[in-house]
Amino acid sequence: MANAITIEKETDGKTGRYVARIAGVEGEAELVFTNLGAALIRADHTNAPASMRGTGAAAALVGHMIADARENGFRIEPVCPYALAQYRKHPEWRDVMTKPPS
Protein backbone atom coordinates (compact mmCIF):
# COMPACT_ATOMS: atom_id res chain seq x y z
CA MET A 1 0.00 0.00 0.00
CA ALA A 2 1.33 3.45 -0.95
CA ASN A 3 2.08 5.95 1.77
CA ALA A 4 -0.28 8.89 2.08
CA ILE A 5 0.71 12.28 0.77
CA THR A 6 0.57 15.03 3.39
CA ILE A 7 0.33 18.65 2.31
CA GLU A 8 1.00 21.80 4.30
CA LYS A 9 0.65 25.44 3.31
CA GLU A 10 3.46 27.81 4.27
CA THR A 11 3.12 31.56 3.80
CA ASP A 12 5.38 34.49 4.40
CA GLY A 13 3.32 37.53 3.56
CA LYS A 14 3.59 38.00 -0.19
CA THR A 15 4.90 34.53 -1.06
CA GLY A 16 4.18 30.99 -0.02
CA ARG A 17 4.13 27.38 -1.02
CA TYR A 18 2.21 24.17 -0.66
CA VAL A 19 4.57 21.39 0.42
CA ALA A 20 3.92 17.67 -0.12
CA ARG A 21 5.70 14.94 1.81
CA ILE A 22 5.39 11.18 1.73
CA ALA A 23 6.48 9.11 4.72
CA GLY A 24 9.49 6.99 3.82
CA VAL A 25 10.27 9.01 0.68
CA GLU A 26 13.13 11.46 0.76
CA GLY A 27 12.52 15.06 -0.27
CA GLU A 28 9.48 17.23 -0.69
CA ALA A 29 7.46 18.49 -3.62
CA GLU A 30 6.31 22.09 -3.71
CA LEU A 31 3.97 24.46 -5.49
CA VAL A 32 5.25 28.02 -5.05
CA PHE A 33 2.82 30.94 -5.21
CA THR A 34 2.74 34.71 -4.93
CA ASN A 35 -0.02 36.52 -3.07
CA LEU A 36 -1.18 39.28 -5.42
CA GLY A 37 -3.71 40.74 -2.96
CA ALA A 38 -7.43 41.23 -3.49
CA ALA A 39 -8.10 37.50 -2.93
CA LEU A 40 -5.77 36.46 -5.76
CA ILE A 41 -2.68 34.25 -5.86
CA ARG A 42 -0.41 33.36 -8.75
CA ALA A 43 0.64 29.71 -9.05
CA ASP A 44 4.28 30.24 -10.04
CA HIS A 45 6.10 26.91 -10.05
CA THR A 46 5.66 23.25 -9.17
CA ASN A 47 8.63 21.01 -8.46
CA ALA A 48 9.02 17.41 -7.34
CA PRO A 49 12.37 15.77 -6.68
CA ALA A 50 13.25 12.59 -8.58
CA SER A 51 12.43 10.58 -5.46
CA MET A 52 8.79 11.73 -5.65
CA ARG A 53 8.18 11.63 -9.39
CA GLY A 54 5.34 9.33 -10.33
CA THR A 55 3.85 9.35 -6.83
CA GLY A 56 1.04 11.81 -7.58
CA ALA A 57 2.51 14.40 -5.21
CA ALA A 58 2.57 17.22 -7.77
CA ALA A 59 -1.03 16.58 -8.84
CA ALA A 60 -2.05 16.44 -5.17
CA LEU A 61 -0.46 19.87 -4.64
CA VAL A 62 -2.50 21.44 -7.42
CA GLY A 63 -5.67 19.73 -6.18
CA HIS A 64 -4.99 20.99 -2.68
CA MET A 65 -4.52 24.55 -3.97
CA ILE A 66 -7.88 24.33 -5.78
CA ALA A 67 -9.63 23.08 -2.62
CA ASP A 68 -7.95 25.82 -0.57
CA ALA A 69 -9.14 28.48 -3.04
CA ARG A 70 -12.72 27.22 -2.86
CA GLU A 71 -12.67 27.00 0.93
CA ASN A 72 -11.05 30.39 1.49
CA GLY A 73 -12.54 32.42 -1.35
CA PHE A 74 -9.54 33.33 -3.45
CA ARG A 75 -8.80 32.97 -7.16
CA ILE A 76 -5.73 31.57 -8.88
CA GLU A 77 -3.74 33.00 -11.78
CA PRO A 78 -2.16 29.84 -13.26
CA VAL A 79 1.33 30.68 -14.57
CA CYS A 80 3.07 27.39 -13.70
CA PRO A 81 3.16 25.07 -16.76
CA TYR A 82 2.29 22.03 -14.63
CA ALA A 83 -0.69 23.78 -12.98
CA LEU A 84 -1.88 24.86 -16.44
CA ALA A 85 -1.58 21.30 -17.76
CA GLN A 86 -3.62 19.99 -14.83
CA TYR A 87 -6.21 22.73 -15.36
CA ARG A 88 -6.63 21.62 -18.99
CA LYS A 89 -7.50 18.16 -17.64
CA HIS A 90 -9.92 19.67 -15.09
CA PRO A 91 -11.91 22.49 -16.70
CA GLU A 92 -14.32 22.27 -13.75
CA TRP A 93 -11.71 24.32 -11.85
CA ARG A 94 -12.83 27.37 -13.84
CA ASP A 95 -14.64 28.73 -10.79
CA VAL A 96 -11.34 29.53 -9.05
CA MET A 97 -9.12 30.31 -12.03
CA THR A 98 -8.62 33.74 -13.61
CA LYS A 99 -8.63 32.51 -17.22
CA PRO A 100 -9.97 29.62 -19.32
CA PRO A 101 -7.99 26.35 -19.46
CA SER A 102 -6.92 26.71 -23.10
How is this structure best summarized?
The protein has 102 residues and is α+β, with helices and mostly antiparallel strands. Helix content is 25%, strand content 36%. The protein has a single domain (5-92), classed as Gcn5-related N-acetyltransferase (GNAT) (Aminopeptidase), CATH 3.40.630.30.
How would you portray this structure in words?
It contains two helices and five strands; from the N terminus they run E-E-E-E-H-E-H. Helices cover 25% and strands 36% of the residues. It is α+β, with helices and mostly antiparallel strands and 102 residues long. It has one domain (5-92): Gcn5-related N-acetyltransferase (GNAT) (Aminopeptidase). The protein has helices spanning 57-72, 81-89; strands at residues 5-12, 15-22, 29-37, 40-47, 75-78.
